[in-house]
Amino acid sequence: MAEWRNWAGDQRCIPAAIERPGTRQELSEVVRRAAGEGLRVRASASGHSFTEIALTDGIMVRLDRLNRVLEVDRGAGLVKVEAGTVLGELNRRLDDLGLAFENLGDIDRQTIAGSISTGTHGTGARFRSVSAQVEAIEMVLADGSTLELSAGDDPAGLACARIGLGALGLIYAVTIRTVPAFTLHRVDSPKPLDETLARLDELNDVNDHFEFYVFPNTEIALCRESRRTDEPPRPRSRAAVYAQEVMLENWLGQLFALAGRHLPSQAPRLSRLAASGVGRSTKVDRSYRVFASERRIRFTEMEYGIGREHAAEAVRRVLERATRAEHRVAYPIEVRFVAADDVVLSASHARDTCYVAVHQDRKLDWEPYFRGVEEIMDDYGGRPHWGKRHFQTAATLAPRYPRWDEFRSLRAKLDPGGLFDNAYLERVLGPIASGDQR
């Protein structure tokens, strides 16, 4: 039996077997065999989640062989792809077709199924999450049959499945609504934190995609402002990308993290040094190359979505928590903005959202810091990113999602025996009760 670990290396399990189906039929056969043997089934995707969402002692399904583009309707902008297609590769294929996602996260190593199932969102106050850009999902259910949920035929079912946590079935294919390929002009620059927090509405209005980072013990916001442009793309050389995104953002970041681990008293000084060393830079390129960043530092992370109106106050409170010496935080706080959507388990469901993410050295005692941040997020009705650490349960989560019972009902209908359950789902969704099914 082989051990499986996530990207960060802090979640691990030993499945009874790891299966790699290459067709929809093979995926269905894996599910039928598991059910016949009384084993639960989970898909692990690329392992970029920090939670226990993929863990199983039953059958783990890896979808990496399911990576084909199945259908393209360029006129309608609809593209159907298999679930294991990695976003970075999918972005390149879409660009060849003259198409693109309207919004993306800052990592492109996830599979399309994994990214939508946990709520990958990106940033852009007028743009929705990746999950909200999905027009149809084809799943293999607990009995091995297939079901397609689409915006046209079953919008309520699709609204549940777009962020399904793997609780409804195994995704075989996803149909994405794309837009014509576009170029972004991005400017990275430091700004005074007070000014940035006071101008959040303005900065979101004048930019298509806006986000910022702030290190504890500093008053500098490292702002990233991106606007759509008619300028021709000016891709950086490989050497320039390596110097900026690997050496500076990763190696130097790792050095600060190590120093924070072994010299905690120096964490405030290192934070100030990191913030002061960031200058202005620009990037003009195809959208998917601007959205994505290289991430090589292994950390653990928590992220919450709150109402956008609470952003400035919440950031100040989280910064105060992060500066406490006992937490030894050497990582910045990341702040992004996303438009409201109708996805049932989305952190942006029915509200324009500010996402606040905190990171910590995975080898330190991260839990007290994260619990303190979660207490702050609770004050604003915060909803956790499903792929990142949190301590919520079904009882605390249910009041935060207006259509929570719809999801529970569909889960009970599609997987009444809990074939796709694991301990994480039982904690955050609760047990499958026969009374849920309608």
Strand-helix topology:
Blueprint: E1 4-5, E2 12-13, E3 17-19, H1 24-37, E4 41-43, E5 59-61, E6 69-73, E7 78-82, H2 87-96, E8 99-100, H3 112-118, E9 134-140, E10 146-150, H4 155-161, E11 170-177, E12 179-180, E13 183-192, H5 193-198, H6 200-206, E14 209-214, E15 220-229, H7 238-262, H8 267-276, E16 281-286, H9 287-291, E17 299-307, H10 311-322, E18 333-338, E19 353-361, H11 367-378, E20 383-384, H12 394-397, H13 404-414, H14 423-429
Parallel strand pairs: 3-5, 4-5
Antiparallel strand pairs: 1-2, 6-7, 7-11, 8-12, 9-10, 9-11, 13-15, 13-16, 14-15, 14-18, 17-19, 17-20, 18-19
Q: What is the correct CATH architecture of the domain at 183-384?
A: 3-Layer(aba) Sandwich
Mean pLDDT: 91
Helix content range: 25-40%
Number of distinct helices = 14
Structural class, from secondary structure content? alpha+beta
CATH homologous superfamily descriptor of the domain at 183-384: FAD-linked oxidases, C-terminal domain
| Biggest pleated-sheet summary | 8 strands, antiparallel
Question: What is the end-to-end distance?
Answer: 40 Å
- In spatial order, strands of the major sheet run 16-13-15-14-18-19-17-20
CATH C-level category of the domain at 183-384: Alpha Beta
Q: Based on DSSP secondary structure assignment, what is the total number of beta strands?
A: 20
Strand-residue proportion = 15-25%
Q: Any idea what the radius of gyration is?
A: 21 Å
Spans where pLDDT lies below 50 across 5 or more residues: none
Shape: globular
What is the CATH T-level topology of the domain at 183-384? Vanillyl-alcohol Oxidase, Chain A, domain 3
